[in-house]
């Protein structure tokens, strides 16, 4: 169905090819997963399937890519639209219409399908992706995760033979991600749809793949094989694979179920021990009750149009504390962060950062008290180069020249100063936006889905930076669907549902009580209070064989 023959792509002005000598075949009715660090060319490879590379992105494509027998060099994206459906990393760039139902129908209208067929498929897709309650909603009013589901739905309705998905679950809560993956499984197994997917959150998807293709480094040829073969050697792998490697299991497990069946001996080795650090991995100690409150909400309610986004939320965050906001898509996490930086005025109750009411304060006053990295990092990026963005951030924050650049280097090494922000991957743009906010070192740092688009190595570097900031007294609030990040980093977890706080407590206490928000290690070692691979490694290293 998809065939790459000695394919290389070189962009004008780039020091080397984005992808080199790709030989790949994806048969009909298989799910093929692309893995690898940020910036290795996964999005370029996906774009070559849909024809966006090189017809839309530019550059030079050598070799041959065929999809359903069509050569993408001679068929432009519109000539492949009936066979290939594509969802990129940024759902907003995908939308054409204003409402959910119209967006689901648009692709079929373009292909000239009959109205009764269109109506039936729209209803099927609304049910498949849990969008029925949102059918009349303006797309602009949806949460990031809801937009992601609409974007996926809009390419499903024309029933393409090939689906190309770039980070399809990155903005979804665990439940919604499972629903989307279940839909993809049905398409693959029941309809014979071919799916080519790039995803950093391998803990969600690797067990469903028929084939895994590893892109080890920029410009290096890919390595392909079964999921077990690639995960045994891949530098990027989910926690359950890391646990299998640590325990010496062969083949490595790909799912929690596989690992749990083999974990008896490991549980026995850990039976007399308890995690030594909270949060795990030699993280900072929790703040004392005497620590200053740097951000708070009291009885906070916010309406966004007809929607009651927050209802009577009480929350306080102290200096040195890291709090993870969790909950399903549309629960109010982003709205709460927005209220703390003045983007949303309270309908009732109060929001405060330090001694300021955010919605009544000027940006100049707020910048040194609170900083927000939004879900769409491009909203913070205006300059033509990375160097110019960093220089402007240093000036705005009154920081020493080079401060921002040092943060960028710490998160994503080897990004040249002259790179235009639009040429960065989604994960790289997020890292740059985070560096811009951190340059001012505000006491309260807010991050909305900070690991979206980040590979495991970049996420590890982000965790180290945030731990150092917390150790220096900064308070950090993360709105995240990444349960592994919350387990690794947060002192507290606050779960929102329909705009209300339904749980608020120490991380281990909250996530172990919730199957939806428990990390993989906790699910495998379910009778013990272990949350992360780091905790298990520390315990085994301290325990004689």
UniProtKB/TrEMBL annotation:
Residues 277-289 have a biased composition (Pro residues). InterPro entries: AAA+_ATPase, ABC_transporter-like_ATP-bd, ABC_transporter-like_CS, ABC_transpr_CbiO/EcfA_su, ECF_ABC_transporter_ATP-bd, P-loop_NTPase. PROSITE patterns: ABC_TRANSPORTER_1, ABC_TRANSPORTER_2. GO terms for molecular function: ATP binding. Residues 269-293 are annotated as: Disordered. It comes from the Bacteria. Keywords: ATP-binding, Nucleotide-binding, Transport. The keyword Nucleotide-binding applies. Residues 2-243, 295-523 form the ABC transporter domain. Belongs to the ABC transporter superfamily. This is ABC transporter ATP-binding protein. It comes from Streptomyces pathocidini.
């Amino acid at each position: 169905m998809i065939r790459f023959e000695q394919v290389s792509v070189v962009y004008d002005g780039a020091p080397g090819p984005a992808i080199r000598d790709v030989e790949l075949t994806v048969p009909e009715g298989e799910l093929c997963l692309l893995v690898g660090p940020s910036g290795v060319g996964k999005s370029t490879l996906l774009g070559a399937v849909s024809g966006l590379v090189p017809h839309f992105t530019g550059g030079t494509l050598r070799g041959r890519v065929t999809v359903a027998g069509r050569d993408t060099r001679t068929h432009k994206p519109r000539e492949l639209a009936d066979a290939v459906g594509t969802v990129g990393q940024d759902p907003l760039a995908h939308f054409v219409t204003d409402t959910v139902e119209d967006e689901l129908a648009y692709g079929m209208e373009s292909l000239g399908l009959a109205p009764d067929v269109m109506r039936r498929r729209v209803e099927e897709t609304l049910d498949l992706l849990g969008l029925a309650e949102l059918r009349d909603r303006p797309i602009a009013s949806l949460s990031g995760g809801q937009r992601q589901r609409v974007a996926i739905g809009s390419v499903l309705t024309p029933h393409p033979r090939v689906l190309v998905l770039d980070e399809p679950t990155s903005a979804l809560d665990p439940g919604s991600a499972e629903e989307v993956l279940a839909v993809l499984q049905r398409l693959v197994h029941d309809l014979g749809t071919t799916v080519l997917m790039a995803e950093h959150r391998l803990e969600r998807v690797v067990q469903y793949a028929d084939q895994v293709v590893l892109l080890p480094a920029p410009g290096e040829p890919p390595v392909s094989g079964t999921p077990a073969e690639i995960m045994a050697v891949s530098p990027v792998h989910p926690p359950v694979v890391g646990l299998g490697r640590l325990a010496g299991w062969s083949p490595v497990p790909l799912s929690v179920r596989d690992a749990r069946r083999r974990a008896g001996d490991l549980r026995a080795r850990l039976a007399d021990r308890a995690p030594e650090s909270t949060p795990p991995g030699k993280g900072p100690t929790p703040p004392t009750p005497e620590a200053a409150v740097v951000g708070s909400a009291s009885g906070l309610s916010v309406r966004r149009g007809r929607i009651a986004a927050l209802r009577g939320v009480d929350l306080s965050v102290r200096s040195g504390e890291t709090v993870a906001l969790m909950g399903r898509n549309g629960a109010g996490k982003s709205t709460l962060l927005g209220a703390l930086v003045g983007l949303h005025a309270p309908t009732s109750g109060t929001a405060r950062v330090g001694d300021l009411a955010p919605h009544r304060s000027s940006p100049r006053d707020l910048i040194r008290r609170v900083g927000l990295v939004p879900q769409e990092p491009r909203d913070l990026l205006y300059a033509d180069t990375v160097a110019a963005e960093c220089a402007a951030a240093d000036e705005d924050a009154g920081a020493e020249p080079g401060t921002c650049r040092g943060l960028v280097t710490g998160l994503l090494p080897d990004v040249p100063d002259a790179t235009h922000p639009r040429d960065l991957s989604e994960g790289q743009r997020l890292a740059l936006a985070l560096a811009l906010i951190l340059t001012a070192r505000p006491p309260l740092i807010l991050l909305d889905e900070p690991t979206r688009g980040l590979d495991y190595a970049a996420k590890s570097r982000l965790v180290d930076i945030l731990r150092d900031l917390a150790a220096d007294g900064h308070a950090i609030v993360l709105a995240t669907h990444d349960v592994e990040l919350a387990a690794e980093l947060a002192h507290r977890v606050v779960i929102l549902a329909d705009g209300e706080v339904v749980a608020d407590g120490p991380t281990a206490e909250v996530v172990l009580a919730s199957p939806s928000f428990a990390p993989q290690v906790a699910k495998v070692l379910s009778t013990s209070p272990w949350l992360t691979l780091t905790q298990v490694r520390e315990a085994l290293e301290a325990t004689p064989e």
